[in-house]
Amino acid sequence: MKAFIYSAKVFLLLTSIVLFTGCNSTKEEQATNEETNEQEVTLTKEQLKNVVLDTTKLSLRNISSVVKVTGTIDVPPQNMVSVSTLLGGYVASTKLLPGMHINKGEVIAKMEDQQYIQLQQDYLITKSKLAYAEKEYQRQKELNLNKASSDKVLQQTEAEYKTLKISLNALAEKLRLININPTKLSEGNLSRQINIYSPIDGYVSKVNVNIGKYVNPTDVLFELIDPSDIHLNLKVFEKDINKLAIGQKLIAYTNNNPDKKYHCDIILISKDFDADKTAEVHCHFDEYDKSLLSGMYMNAEIEIKNHEAYTLPEDAIVNFEGKDYVFVTDDKKQFTIQEVQLGVKENSFIEIKNTTSLSGKSIVSKGAYTLLMKMKNKAEEE
């Protein structure tokens, strides 16, 4: 009897184990099926009538990439002019304001000081003394020829004449440095003022003085910009610098007016990188616009050379939870979602990098987001 009871218990235990194992196996199969089904969407005939679906396959095409960078409008050092006066003085008048256009040779300021008068006076006095010394030198030469004058007197007269000649030439150069023409200077047109002329055609960048202010020779009165060589200074990251070349075309635009495009050419590529791993790329504008000012912030798009790549239309790509997907189908009834890695986008086509699993397959090119919505709704219902 005891043996019979023991056998029954063993039988019940084995039966429970078999049933438990069977239940677990069924649950695992169901979970696997559910996981597979979560990646698929099946449309009925009625649903297919109400959904517009088109399919395509990977296509090989030439595509060019675009490097997007930022920068500022810059002026080379040779096109930036700091205006100073070589002799200190008071600012008598000026009409300049930042942003004003000025022409080369235009009077941009007047300075006055008593030392200007003194310099003109010294020049005229030296000029008068030289005239007398020249005549005296000629007279002593004649006397010396007739032995009526000693060689010593002749040498002293010659030294005086040459010294005054040197002094006069030096004073004349000083007058030219302060924009006074010594050949037109006479005792009747001495002036306490001098003119400051613009050395370039361009624009006023900074005005550092006001009327009545005394300035020293080391002080900068004005800063001027010659826009003839204004250029765009871009900051390009290290990973993109080797993609660029001298003469390469690009398009630039401002934040305020992004629709207005400025065409440029690359003229210089720096090989020195800053702390942020960027290098300077200098570009010339094909046509200069007066509205572009030094220091203005700009965006730029640089087109890189064409390369062959497998692509899909933009409409074939759906984005879900930060990842990109496409729908693959064999019969246009059942659709499987598959993640893709994207590359360059151009003319409504996007480069696909992981092409091995998609090669030769039919991919939904229109209606992909409709399938994604149905898949999400299905997951929520479950």
TrEMBL record:
Keywords: Signal, Transport. One of its GO terms (molecular function) is transmembrane transporter activity. Belongs to the membrane fusion protein (MFP) (TC 8.A.1) family. GO terms for cellular component: cell envelope; membrane. It comes from the Bacteria. One of its GO terms (biological process) is copper ion export. Residues 1-21 form the signal peptide. This is Efflux RND transporter periplasmic adaptor subunit. PANTHER family: CATION EFFLUX SYSTEM PROTEIN CUSB (PTHR30097), SLR6042 PROTEIN (PTHR30097:SF4). The keyword Plastid does not apply. InterPro entries: MFP_Cation_Efflux, RND_pump_MFP.
